């Protein structure tokens, strides 16, 4: 068996070089796209008068048989198969005979691989959106079940203001909605057909590229053949979208790791989603969350790796571009597990309202106390200062904000009256924030509706 490009070579490739050069180990997973692309090309060659309809049908039958062999897992790789393109063509020609040798007329692996890879990315974006939507759905269910359950909200990881579980759960819904949109945009960018660009200068046969685009589900035809074979922007876009998704999952993980700790104790992970320690019998570890947080590093690394590979390439195709596929496959496989795992973890997560309630201490209501003074006519800056004094007083006495007496309050500001006790209610504080996006029950009801509508599209 010899190389498909071996004609001008007097010597066999060094075996290590063959190994170094080959991409078959990882690009075999493009077999389906490669065969679909080749079938369209065969039809295009009929239109260009290169193949007869009968020859094209013979080639297509051969290609379909190769597809079936791959799908059944019994495709026999040959030692000289360098990549998926050469392997498919070699096998197809074995099956149908020398007419198979006509398929590559006017085509190069350069436009072929770009076409295959774009087809793969277009499909992968659909899968990503499905996985994202499933996790978003899990967050919606969790939010709805405990929409108005009060819990402390944090800035700088310090007690800030009361919020609710529903508000918090939905705050992790929207980043994922943006990720879904990003994958949609990546899909649009990928849907531009490079086939027909050939090696670099454009095919010398009158193949109808619009027809090819239509056959393969591309929305446009690349405008410049030199750019077409070297453009991997869509791959970098995909990795950016994946890195952002990973980053969002990582932040959600980090927060749940904290919330499941003994110190917070707001949530309990289901046994099916946590693991034990080989030494300490009492341990229940959030390994799934830690791994999700950890894997965000590799997702960012994949993006950086590809950008670095691309940055210095002279036009047009360079073999460096073969390095484009593994980071995407890795990102896809990583999220293909991380997203469903996170969805399951959210679906089985137990909340501990009593632990949240225990942390709802009155200092979370300090802003509301300042707002009380504002409503009585005091400028906010001044009210902020006055409540600061109340906080200081409470701290000095070692008591809660609510335990400062009315007389003491009045020594700080005359505006404090009997009605101040009404301020010291978590429920009241929550109910004030009716602004769109706020934590009040009415606002959350609307937000939940908006989230459900966003998911339906
Ligand atoms: N395996 C190659 C890749 O993934 C296919 C294109 C090879 N083209 C070439 N001129 N050697 O990029």
Can you tag this structure with a few keywords?
3 domains, two-stranded parallel ribbon, Fumarase C, Chain B, domain 1, binds arginine, 19 helices, Ribonucleotide Reductase Protein R1, domain 1, 5% strand, mainly alpha, Fumarase C, Chain A, domain 2, single chain, 457 residues, two-stranded antiparallel sheet
In short:
The chain has 457 residues and is mainly alpha-helical. It has helices at residues 15-21, 24-27, 31-47, 53-72, 84-96, 109-145, 165-171, 173-190, 209-216, 225-230, 233-259, 287-310, 325-348, 353-358, 366-375, 380-397, 406-412, 426-432, 441-456; strands spanning 150-155, 158-164, 192-193, 220-221, 267-268, 350-351.
Q: What's the CATH first level of the largest domain?
A: Mainly Alpha
Beta percentage is under 5%
Report the helical percentage. Answer: 55-70%
From the coordinates shown, what is the CATH architecture of the largest domain?
A: Up-down Bundle
Instruction: Please state the structural category.
Output: mainly alpha
What is the secondary structure topology, with strand pairs?
Layout: H1 15-21, H2 24-27, H3 31-47, H4 53-72, H5 84-96, H6 109-145, E1 150-155, E2 158-164, H7 165-171, H8 173-190, E3 192-193, H9 209-216, E4 220-221, H10 225-230, H11 233-259, E5 267-268, H12 287-310, H13 325-348, E6 350-351, H14 353-358, H15 366-375, H16 380-397, H17 406-412, H18 426-432, H19 441-456
Parallel strand pairs: 3-4
Antiparallel strand pairs: 1-2, 5-6
Helix pairs in contact: 3-4, 3-6, 3-9, 4-5, 6-7, 6-8, 6-13, 6-19, 8-11, 11-12, 11-13, 12-13, 15-16
Arginine binds next to helix 6.
């Amino acid at each position: 068996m010899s190389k498909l490009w071996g004609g001008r070579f007097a010597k066999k490739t060094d075996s290590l070089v063959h190994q170094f050069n080959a991409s078959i180990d990882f690009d075999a997973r493009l077999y389906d796209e490669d065969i679909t692309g080749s079938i369209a090309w065969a039809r295009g060659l009929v239109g260009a008068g290169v193949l007869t309809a009968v020859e094209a049908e013979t080639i297509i039958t051969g290609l379909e048989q190769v597809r079936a062999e791959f799908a059944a897992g019994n495709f026999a790789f040959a030692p000289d198969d360098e990549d998926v393109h050469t392997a498919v063509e070699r096998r197809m020609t074995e099956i149908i005979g020398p007419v198979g040798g006509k398929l590559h007329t006017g085509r190069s692996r350069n436009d072929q691989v770009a076409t295959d890879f774009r087809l793969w990315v277009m499909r992968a974006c659909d899968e990503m959106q499905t996985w994202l939507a499933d996790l978003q759905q899990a967050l919606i269910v969790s939010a709805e079940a405990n929409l108005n359950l009060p819990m402390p909200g944090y800035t700088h990881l310090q007690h800030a203001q009361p919020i609710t579980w529903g508000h918090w759960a939905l705050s992790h819904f929207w980043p994922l909605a943006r990720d879904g949109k990003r994958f949609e945009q990546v899909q649009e960018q990928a849907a531009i057909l490079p086939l027909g660009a050939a090696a670099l200068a454009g095919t010398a046969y009158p193949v109808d590229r619009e027809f090819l685009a239509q056959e393969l589900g591309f929305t446009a035809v690349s405008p410049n053949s030199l750019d077409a074979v070297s453009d991997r922007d869509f791959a970098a876009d995909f990795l950016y979208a994946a890195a952002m998704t990973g980053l969002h999952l990582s932040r959600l993980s980090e927060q749940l790791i904290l919330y499941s700790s003994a110190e917070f104790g707001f949530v309990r992970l289901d046994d099916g989603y946590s693991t034990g320690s080989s030494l300490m019998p009492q341990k229940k570890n959030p390994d799934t969350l830690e791994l999700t947080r950890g894997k965000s590093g590799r997702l960012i690394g994949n993006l950086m790796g590809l950008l670095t590979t691309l940055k210095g390439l002279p036009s047009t195709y360079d073999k460096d571009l073969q390095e484009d596929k593994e980071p995407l496959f890795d990102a896809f496989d990583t999220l293909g597990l991380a997203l469903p795992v996170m969805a399951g973890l959210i679906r089985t997560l137990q909340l501990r309202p009593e632990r949240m309630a225990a942390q709802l201490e009155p200092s979370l209501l300090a802003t509301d106390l300042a707002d009380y003074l504002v409503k009585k006519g005091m400028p906010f800056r001044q009210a902020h200062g006055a409540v600061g004094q109340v906080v200081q007083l409470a701290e000095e006495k070692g008591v809660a904000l609510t335990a400062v007496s009315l007389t003491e309050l009045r020594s700080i500001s005359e505006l404090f009256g009997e009605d101040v006790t009404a301020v010291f209610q978590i429920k009241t504080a929550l109910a004030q924030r009716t602004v769109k996006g706020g934590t009040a029950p009415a606002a959350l009801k609307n937000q939940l509706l908006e989230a459900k509508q966003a998911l339906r599209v």
